[in-house]
Amino acid sequence: xxxxxxxxxxxxxxxxxxxxxxxxxxxxxxxxxxxxxxxxxxxxxxxxxxxxxxxxxxxxxxxxxxxxxxxxxxxxxxxxxxxxxxxxxxxxxxxxxxxxxxxxxxxxxxxxxxxxxxxxxxxxxxxxxxxxxxxxxxxxxxxxxxxxxxxxxxxxxxxxxxxxxxxxxxxxxxxxxxxxxxxxxxxxxxxxxxxxxxxxxxxxxxxxxxxxxxxxxxxxxxxxxxxxxxxxxxxxxxxxxxxxxxxxxxxxxxxxxxxxxxxxxxxxxxxxxxxxxxxxxxxxxxxxxxxxxxxxxxxxxxxxxxxxxxxxxxxxxxxxxxxxxxxxxxxxxxxxxxxxxxxxxxxxxxxxxxxxxxxxxxxxxxxxxxxxxxxxxxxxxxxxxxxxxxxxxxxxxxxxxxxxx
Amino acid sequence: xxxxxxxxxxxxxxxxxxxxxxxxxxxxxxxxxxxxxxxxxxxxxxxxxxxxxxxxxxxxxxxxxxxxxxxxxxxxxxxxxxxxxxxxxxxxxxxxxxxxxxxxxxxxxxxxxxxxxxxxxxxxxxxxxxxxxxxxxxxxxxxxxxxxxxxxxxxxxxxxxxxxxxxx
Lengths: 405, 168
Fold this sequence. Notes:
The complex is a heterodimer of chains A (405) and B (168).
Chain A: H1 2-17, H2 27-41, H3 46-66, H4 68-84, H5 86-120, E1 124-126, E2 129-137, E3 146-149, E4 162-165, E5 168-176, E6 181-185, E7 192-198, E8 202-208, E9 213-217, E10 232-235, E11 247-253, E12 258-262, E13 271-276, E14 279-281, H6 285-290, H7 293-376, H8 391-398
Antiparallel strand pairs in A: 1-14, 2-3, 2-13, 3-6, 4-5, 4-13, 5-6, 7-8, 7-10, 8-9, 9-12, 10-11, 11-12
Helix pairs in contact in A: 5-7, 7-8
Chain B: H1 2-6, H2 8-28, H3 44-55, H4 62-76, H5 82-100, H6 106-130, H7 138-167
Helix pairs in contact in B: 2-3, 2-4, 3-5, 3-7, 4-5, 5-6, 6-7
């Protein structure tokens, strides 16, 4: 027993401490260095941060270069897939384009109204300085869902900067280097986003599922059934981590969960937009008085610009309303003509029906007349019949020869 | 392979191939995730490090393994040092098994590999969740361990050709 324990200790010592001929460091030294690095990387010393940023820059660039062959294969694979479904997608896109065009004008009006309302409450209006960024590293790790973009602190990207694919939210920046940044995708397990679900207008938190969808959490009990497939999830802006009103995805109900299917396909991201926010504070009336004339001119110019934009939008909408009005007028005229022709037809039909009823009554009278004319007709001086052609005679015939009712 | 012996520089390049592959794999992570095979993932560096530190440790510098770990952490976005520690732990395990083994058996190595990667993945998971408050899905770790274990035997058969080349 003692000898086997000795063997074990010898083997362990040998494994840890013995440096082989070609090894520069013993394993024990490297274990200690690893632990030291783990501890050190979590301390926020400036020197360590700079060193870390330097390593990140070099490694991200190297990773991008090394990934070129694999990315080529990957892109070729997706290109082939795209070509195979090209026509169907084109048809779908065409339909969507028509729908989007029609809703575009109303969206512009809403945007303008939103800006105006923000101005009224003396809030800030954030400019939409979106900068295009290329994804240089995207390994789609099953553990952590993140990508590296080629924009960093020199492009005013900060921790928390919102990242978009078109106008859809895809994530936020969690690590910034000088020329690169790491974006934590919404699908990551560590991603929590305060959201609003429309049209039910319910506030919730969306958590990444670690897969290609998100999950809705922290909603009231009993409102689970309120949602349907048309429910849209967008950012609520609570906590000021994400801007409000950015579309994320659509609700999909499962047996026990509410999942969110993202509008954007995170596996297909090549370029994204990083929104570098510049807060433009609205000036209070007091400040405006103190401002110099240049600033006043700028303010007036801005107002004029806004008014011109408003005018343009109103003109556009007016044009659209006019077109719709013309269409409606034409439709009303057409319908009126149709109604009058239908009325005429109905009158003609009624006349025909009346004539037919009269003809039937006449026919019935003639049939009965043949049978009962001898009973109803007067022939002798004191007989009880009636003179032919009188209403009494007709009544008698219709009563089948009965003179008294 | 006599050619290599004659041409020393070529042999040197040949002996560096595993380390080069290790760096390429940590920088690139060719795990075929874009094929959208649900849950499919495997850890190629684990296989590479385990095999070469077990069979050809003289040409496989531990220091480079440590550096490769740092690169892996940077690419994936884990706290620096986690992967280095994992890789070095594999090296320790292989050094131990090398010392205690008299008659090597591929089958034993395979199951020993399963034990080691399970242990290291558990350690990784524990450190990341307990000390760094990461939210991680344990299922992914289990499936990753399973596929890494399954692919080990496939890659080993390829690596053996390389070893035969360097030993001849």
